[in-house]
Amino acid sequence: MSTIFIPKHIRPMHGRLAYNDCALFHDMTNVELDTLESCADQTKCNAGDYLFRQNAPSDHVYNVISGTVAIERVSNNGRRQVLGFLFPGDFLGITNSAHYDYAVRSLTKTELYKFNRKRLYTLADELPHLKTNIAEISSRIFNRILDQLYILGQKKAHERLCFLFMQLLERLPGARPDRVELYMTRQDMADYLGLTIETVSRSLAKLKADGLIAFPQLNVLQILDIAKVSELADT
Amino acid sequence: MSTIFIPKHIRPMHGRLAYNDCALFHDMTNVELDTLESCADQTKCNAGDYLFRQNAPSDHVYNVISGTVAIERVSNNGRRQVLGFLFPGDFLGITNSAHYDYAVRSLTKTELYKFNRKRLYTLADELPHLKTNIAEISSRIFNRILDQLYILGQKKAHERLCFLFMQLLERLPGARPDRVELYMTRQDMADYLGLTIETVSRSLAKLKADGLIAFPQLNVLQILDIAKVSELADT
DNA sequence: CGCTACATTGACAGCGTTCAAGGTAAGTGG
DNA sequence: CCACTTACCTTGAACGCTGTCAATGTAGCG
């Protein structure tokens, strides 16, 4: 039944999450959702586990139920670029190539739905809403990458961090200006923003000294001056 | 007739251009090509002209026949990021949103095919090859953006330039190691690579002094040591 | 020839990286 | 409960790359 298929902690997002990717089920009838369920399986990961590695065959599309994951790309010489952080409701693995061009690493304990990619795509030919939704999700992912590209090309360290904060605030379920849980390490932030861990640390210290943010705990961020942070983050 | 529809200077690429986007017509029958032609129109631009601006309604998909264009994104504060350079055979304007998230500026005199986007997409529902090809093209565009993201996040100025050179060598029709025409200005390169024009100039001078490249003319590049350039460019 | 746009070069400052040391927090075992 | 370990984070100092500002050079064009 479709009411079982969509777990409680995702359901309430439907109305709220305009920016999140949780839209695969959007506008679909219960009958359609039942069909969709036939492609679905569930899986889980522990913190640090790789869901899949770079160049693995792209057999599945995943939907994060709970937890946080990082999309990474590692080059020949070992340098790592984090392409994004994904949260509950987000999709990953949507691709047209036969292999994933990136790896996915869990930052926390993570539960995911797992769809057979080919079956999902075949199904999309029959269910127009599903196809529209997949296109819509791809489009959002693409736009996020463009934002990140702009940030890496044009922004200073402290601006990049503000960009990350605003992204977390918008996309991380449960994040509020006075409490944003940072599930990633400083190194993950650095690799996402194209900086070193030291620069991240120093820039955080600067933003803190300037009264824009605070850290009630090491991994809990408080945004004190959201107007300024938002301005610095601006794309 | 489909033999008219695909102009001579594109036709020969079909077999060769594994990395170029000129694949919309791939595997299609003459009947299918005739149908495709019904969506097509032709247009041209002068150097410096904008084909369309950021946030314009995304009414058309374009295919470059001749010339070079730059995809750009400008932010609120005026900083510009070039998202890519496109050459004959390349597509642009493939999107799922109602508006373009970027502007397209001609670097040279440019001729393009122009497809009504909605009609093209409707047609894609009927012609399976066309739909596959559109997906294939989108996938390549996405991968190029990921490469660029990595470059901006991890590489030094001279490495970024080598990356650009290798891209031009692979994607610009007619480019050979001993002769790569640079249709873009130094400023365009800078905005593409997330650098300033001065840094571009200095890094070019350094690469020249090291004997990796030469400039027979200001806008003609010669790659003297392709092994090293390729190594520096490596993603 | 002189105008204009584009490119190069120089001097200098500043931001970010690198290398190194020290600090903090959580978990383990005595 | 406390020392010890480990992983992560912060801070410091020096260096170097890149940005900024300014001047000069160069190619194309009327």
Give a short overview.
The structure is a homodimer of 235-residue chains. The first copy, chain A, is α+β, with helices and mostly antiparallel strands.
Q: Kindly report the oligomeric state of this protein.
A: homodimer
**CATH-defined architecture of the largest domain in chain A:** Sandwich
Q: Portion of residues in helices of chain A?
A: 40-55%
The counted number of beta strands of chain A is 11
The CATH C-level name of the largest domain in chain A is: Mainly Beta
Number of DSSP helical runs of chain A: 9
Proportion of β residues of chain A?
15-25%
Poorly predicted ranges of chain A (pLDDT <50, ≥5 residues)?
Answer: 1-21
How confident is the prediction overall: mean pLDDT of chain A?
A: 86
The global form of chain A is: globular
Total separate domains of chain A: 2
Radius of gyration of chain A: 18 Å
Query: H/E series of chain A, N to C?
Result: HHHEEEEEEEEHHHEHHEEH
CATH superfamily annotation of the largest domain in chain A = Jelly Rolls
Q: How does the major sheet of chain A shape up? A: 4 strands, antiparallel
Strand order of the largest sheet of chain A: 1-8-3-6
Domain HTH crp-type (chains A, B): 155-227
Keywords (chains A, B): DNA-binding, Transcription, Transcription regulation
Pfam families (chains A, B): cNMP_binding, HTH_Crp_2
GO cellular component, one term (chains A, B): cytosol
